[in-house]
Amino acid sequence: MSRQPGAETRERLVEAASLVLRTEGYAGTSARSIAKAAEVNSALVFYHFGGVDPLLLAALDRSSEQRMATYREAVAGARTLEELVEVANGIYRADLEGGHITLFSELVGASIARPELKEEIVKRSEPWIDFVEQTLERVIGGSPLARLLPPRDLAYAAITFYLGVNLFTHLDADRSRTEALFGLAGRVAPRARLLTMRFPRRRTPSAGDHPSEG
């Protein structure tokens, strides 16, 4: 069954908004530039989405939904911190090539001067923080490292690092410094193995226990 014309137009606008935001940046994104890329009338941006920012958020939502599904599948097999770092390295490369982080970072930058946009970006960041926290809890939960650095705190740090390193990639022409950061993480992870081991808790002696006689 073919989609209704309205649904097809919305789809074209979302795809065009994603493309224009990635290639032209937030400053170069307008109803006219999006409509031109979608080959529709610019009035349809407002008819279907109510404005440019809601359309850009819809494009971010679409990208986030796709990336989240991919991430969940990618990290499902990671059982150690080393394996998790390796997966993160692959995710970074895929996001860099696919442009998801560009969508997010452009909207983060724009939200500095637009409080209403900031609220929407913060709302959309929470599922990612929860996802990272849950993954870290599964991999290192109950270990000395988790007690030293709680997964929730590590999740905030990971998201901050990931956003920062992707933004810095735009200034690092040959990617040598960002590649070095992931290389460093890869070297540190094996050395933290002892801190990620889960040790059985020592049983608290009960009132009925008796010391062994020598």
Descriptive overview:
The protein has 214 residues and is mostly helical. 72% of the residues lie in helices and 0% in strands. The protein contains ten helices and no strands. It has helices spanning 5-24, 31-38, 43-49, 52-75, 81-98, 100-111, 115-140, 144-148, 151-169, 176-191. Helix 1 packs across helix 3, helix 4 crosses helix 6 (100-111) and helix 6 crosses helix 7. The chain is elongated, with a radius of gyration of 23 Å. The model has no long low-confidence stretch (mean pLDDT 82).
What's the layout of helices and strands?
Elements: H1 5-24, H2 31-38, H3 43-49, H4 52-75, H5 81-98, H6 100-111, H7 115-140, H8 144-148, H9 151-169, H10 176-191
Helix pairs in contact: 1-2, 1-3, 1-4, 4-5, 4-6, 4-7, 5-10, 6-7, 7-9
Q: In brief, what are we looking at here?
A:
By secondary structure, the protein is mainly α. 72% of the residues lie in helices and 0% in strands. The longest helix is centred in the middle third of the chain and has 26 residues, at 115-140.
